[in-house]
Design goal:
mainly alpha; single chain; about 80% helix
Length: about 100
């Protein structure tokens, strides 16, 4: 509800941005919420898996694996972007190589 209120208030302000920046902002908020939902679900699954083996997943364990996965995806997209720059093509074309 807080985010919805923020979107409603900031969407009505008149500023330098236009409709494109408002849509970009809304897309970023939606993607942030989606990523938070995915991360929360995966962490709940990890807690249940640890509990089934008689261990308790501590917050630092969850943060370590979350950051490790983020680093993995960053590295993947970094390599794709680098490949796209070297080959002089858009990044989505580099995925086909």
């Amino acid at each position: 509800m807080i985010i919805a209120g923020t979107v409603l208030v900031s969407g009505k302000k008149k500023g330098h941005g236009g409709a494109a920046s408002s849509l970009t902002g809304l897309a970023m908020i939606a993607s942030s919420l989606a990523c938070d939902g995915i991360t929360g679900g995966l962490q709940d699954r990890a807690k249940k898996a640890a509990a089934s083996t008689g261990k308790k997943a501590k917050p630092y364990d969850l943060m370590f694996w979350t950051n490790w996965c983020a680093a993995f995806f960053f590295f993947f997209f970094f390599v794709i972007s680098l490949l796209a720059c070297v080959l002089g093509m858009p990044w989505w074309h580099a995925l086909r190589v």
